[in-house]
Design a protein that fits this description.
By secondary structure, the chain is of the alpha+beta class. The chain has one domain (2-134): Roll (PH-domain like), CATH 2.30.29.30. It is 29% helix and 34% strand. It has an eight-stranded antiparallel beta sheet with strand order 1-5-4-3-2-8-7-6, sandwiched between helices.
Length: 141
Amino acid sequence: MLVNVSYNNKQITNKVDEAVGKPFTLKERWQLKGIGSPKLFIIETSIEIMNLLILDNNTNSCNIELRPKGIIVRFRSLLETFALVIPFYKLSVYKGDIATYTIYRDKYYIKVLADTKAVQKYFRKILDYKADNIPPSIQDL
């Protein structure tokens, strides 16, 4: 779901927490060696997100926050902060060319530049965490 998280709205906060879980505690953040991504530069997006990003002339960038049941991709446009909330069961990550990753959720996608080792390591952390914490499927039983 794509939501505006600029303002402190309990209904939106509850929806986000229900979809991807509450934020990690400080102890869990230390154990995971951080939950936030470095600054990611956006190369391409779906039409709904692009319509928000073209409203201003700033560099299109985003960051990702890891949560217990998913991720949150945050980006800014016209002094507003928007979040693409993606639970693990709807998350698809594709490694494109040499230095690009594409994050999918249903009809939304964001293609980001991954030209540093830190960004590539962060995507590896997301995929490993997803693999370790996804509930078993019917075929596994």
